[in-house]
Write a structure and sequence with these properties.
flagellum, Flagellar hook-filament junction protein FlgL, Flagellin, mainly alpha, f41 fragment of flagellin, N-terminal domain
Length: about 325
Amino acid sequence: MRLSTGMIYDQQMRGIQTSQASWLKVGEQLSTGNRVNRPSDDAVAAAQAVVVSQAQAETAQYKTARVFATQNQSTEETTLKQVADVVISAQTIVVGAANGVLSDADRSSYATQLEGIRAQLLNLANSTDGNGRYLFAGYESDKAPFVTDASGSTTYDGGLNPITQKVDASRTLTTNHTGKQVFDSLTSSAVKEPDGSTGESNIFTILDTAINSLKVPLDDADQTAVDAEAAKLDIANRGLRNSLNNVSSVRSEIGTNLQELDNLDSKGDDTALNLKTQMSGLVGADTTETISSYTMQQAALQASYTVFQQMSKLSLFQLNS
């Protein structure tokens, strides 16, 4: 078979193009750090990489969700700690006001202190986060959860469902409790009234009971009236004790949630590392091997150029010159 100059030229060009393509491919692997940069590089590995990539995206999404959940729970815990401190102060005042030898002026002074505490609690109950959303309003976080009517009674007007967040594939946590759960609920262990009935759950109503009682003049009252107001203070004292226990119960739940979020974060970090390792095994390039291959392909390409230059001198025109 005779080989023409044109055929020799075409053959050499194809060799150069092949060497150049191989060199460029290894160069791409070296620059990206990936052995598989497109499905045609390794169809099976590319398909498996898509699945792993989706798992990585889901893991990252849950990590972000846990960040927000931790922030919300931490903010709520900080607020409830203040609530607990204020309730304890109210208890101290009510106990002090129950002293039967106090004058009407002393009782009025205690009532004024409780009014200040009530205002503090209402402010805490209507707290907002950094974005202006009400902490204890549930999903109706665009409006104040507690409202006071013309008679001075304060009631809950927020959402009935606490805000929840999915923080892992199979775990959903409460990130914000409702004001109803915090300021208008009783635990199962709540102290009952002497007649066996369930006590008042609304902490603002409880404080109102004590405030109104302390404003009743008793300097010239008979024993019946004195005993009646003392009984009201006892009711308020039990109510505050129950309210504090309820707040403590919510705080305990928050503490458990925060601990679980930490555990889920640790688990998520392990999962992310495992997925990264899997992805690297599927599409990652071995740096040492890739550099070696790059050098070899570069040498092969240079050799192709050299052969082409030498062969080009063997044309019939040059031989006849």
